[in-house]
Every structure is written in C-alpha cells, then in structure tokens.
C-alpha cells in the first residue's frame, strides 16, 4: 500500500474513533456559553478572557476552544502575539443558545439522551430493540413515556422538534403545491412549528395539531397564542381516538418512530378520516433503493434503533404502506435534508 494512502487511512481511523466527542464538544461549548459570548462581544477574545467570563479553568477552556477550531465551529486570528477566538458563521447562526436559528436542544438531546443509549448499541443490535429500559432512572422502554416523564424532558423534546423547522420547514412545505388543501391536520404536530409555516405559506388554511394530551397542554400554554385562530390543538391518541376530518394530513418525522404494522395502521386511520380528494404528506429522510445512502438516513436509522421501535425506509417501503392504506398517486420530492412524499385519497 502506498504511504500516502496509509497515512489517510490512519487519519480516518483516528478521527472516526473519536467522532463520539463531536456532539459533546458542540453541546459543551454551547451550554457553557462560548458561542453566545463571542456573538455578543463583537470582537474576538483570548482563551483566558473567555475562561474568566464563563467561570472555567483557562487550561480546560483552551482545549475546548482549540477543538472547536479544528471542527470549524470557531476561527482564530493572531494579533499582538495573542491567539484570539471568534465564531464562524455556522456558530453565529446555529450553535449559540441565542443564535437566530439555534439548534441548542438538538445538541443537548443528542449529547445526553441519545449518547447514553448509544453506550448500549451492541445490546440494541443483539436484541433489535430500544435501550432506554437499561438506564437506571427508567421504568419504561417507550420513547415518549421516557421523554415526557418530566416537564423539562417534554419541553426539551418539543424545542428540539421545533428547532429543525426554523431551518427546513419552508422548503419541505414548498415541495408540492398544497393550496388545494386548506383544512390541514398535523398528526403528531408537537409545538406547531410546521403548522405556523403552513398558515404563513397558505393564507386560507387552518391547521389542527393532533398530539398526546401533555404535548397539547404545553403547546397551548407556551407555543401558540390564543389570538392565532388558524391553529388549534386536539388531544388524541392517533392509534385509538377519532381523528379530525381534513383535506391534508401531515406526518412529519412520525412514521420513522413506529413498526411497519403501526405505520400501516395509522395511515389506514388517516385514509378513513380524509376528505375525498384529500391526501397525506409524509416527511422523512428516505433511503435510496439499494440502501447505500444518504448517510443521514443510516445515522437516523441507528438512533431510531436505540430509542424507538422504528427505522428509516426506502420509497418502495413507503409506497407499500400508502397502497395498503388506500392512498394513491404517490409522488416523492427531495427537499435537501428531508424528503416529502404526497399520496392522494
Ligand atoms: C418524532 S415527533 C415529530 C414531531 C413533529 N411532527 C415534527 O416533525 O417536529 C412525533 C410526535 O408524535 C406524537 N405522538 C406519538 N405517539 C402519539 C400517539 N399515539 N398519538 C398522538 N400523538 C403521538 C409525539 O408526542 C410527537 O409530538
């Protein structure tokens, strides 16, 4: 083997073996306030000043800042014999707690909730099931029961879900002309972040968010003001309770949490409730047919294994669900990170 190729292999092996540190680095720097401080200071700062302002050791802070430079979360400049640290555009936009499109709760959930379960990946592969039940503070293996056990867990998960739509909501809803569907039901719609994008894109639309009682209660209290009459919340277990009639059902990041049987069961219930000529819009990361890419689908598939009963699927697999439930004229559009799949009744 040629020496350059071998050196590249060694680099790749070293980096991949330590890649588990990346979410920890991103979250720790965000949580300690590094990105917010640098955003608000308007000028680059030394590691000693950053450590002083954030109440950490200068030694530890310098290690963290240098790693952030390595991963391009921060940039450095040399001035008057000093190393000065500043945010990259990526950090300014997404990584600060007060960044305009902050992904703070996404970082937190991945660095804490997912990370602890990932210690049991081999068990998950052996058993083919989620690993929440192994954790000492858990009495359940059900993802939502574990997440919603405390008020703070529920709020953090809803924030995590909300954050993504500040990045991708508009582009996902623009994948198809949804103007023929003014009466919309966002099934498992959480805080209503996608619902807000929908009503701003389609001025004659109204959206009902269907979700579990604790989510609905928090959604009404913290996310959608009572003046916003075009968005309403509806408490419902969508596997058991009647589903409101609508022209369009949105199922965003919801099917990938469930088994194949549950997906067909839910889609069949939506088909029954759907108005004639209506449809269902599924938003997921779709695997290509030979299951080789995108890498995001593989990553998300493993996360689903660790925490839920679900997985990521190919378009053929979603087609089979739609057909079994009665939806036809299935169309798929890639929208960047997510795919949108529209089926008609
Ligand atoms: C993975 S989250 C996706 C949230 C949202 N669609 C989004 O993309 O941001 C799935 C949502 O389904 C809700 N959910 C799960 N099981 C449910 C059930 N049986 N009945 C109603 N809602 C449910 C959860 O509370 C959660 O809000």
What is the terminal-to-terminal distance? 58 Å
Which strand order does the major sheet show? 5-4-3-6-7-9-8
Identify low-pLDDT runs.
none
Q: From the coordinates shown, what is the CATH architecture of the largest domain?
A: 3-Layer(aba) Sandwich
Superfamily (CATH H level) name of the largest domain: Vaccinia Virus protein VP39
DSSP strand count: 9
Number of H- or I-type helical stretches: 15
Structural class by sheet pairing and helices: alpha/beta
Strand content: 15-25%
State the name of the first-level CATH class of the largest domain. Answer: Alpha Beta
The mean pLDDT is: 96
Report the C-alpha radius of gyration, rounded: 22 Å
Major sheet description = 7 strands, mixed
What does this structure look like?
- The protein is of the alpha/beta class.
- The protein folds into two domains: 3-99, Winged helix-like DNA-binding domain superfamily/Winged helix DNA-binding domain (Arc Repressor Mutant, subunit A, Orthogonal Bundle); 165-344, Vaccinia Virus protein VP39 (Rossmann fold), CATH 3.40.50.
- The chain has 15 helices and nine strands.
- The chain has helices spanning 3-17, 21-32, 34-41, 47-54, 58-70, 89-95, 104-118, 121-127, 143-147, 151-173, 193-201, 213-222, 260-273, 295-307, 315-325, and strands at 74-79, 82-87, 183-187, 206-211, 231-235, 246-252, 274-284, 328-334, 339-344.
- The chain has a seven-stranded mixed sheet, sandwiched between helices. The protein has a two-stranded antiparallel sheet with strand order 1-2.
- Strand 3, helix 11 (193-201) and strand 4 form a beta-alpha-beta unit.
- Helix 2 (21-32) crosses helix 7 (104-118), helix 7 (104-118) crosses helix 10 and helix 10 (151-173) runs parallel beside helix 11.
- The model has no long low-confidence stretch (mean pLDDT 96).
- Residues 144, 161, 188-190, 211-212, 215, 236-239, 252-254, 257 line the site of S-adenosylmethionine.
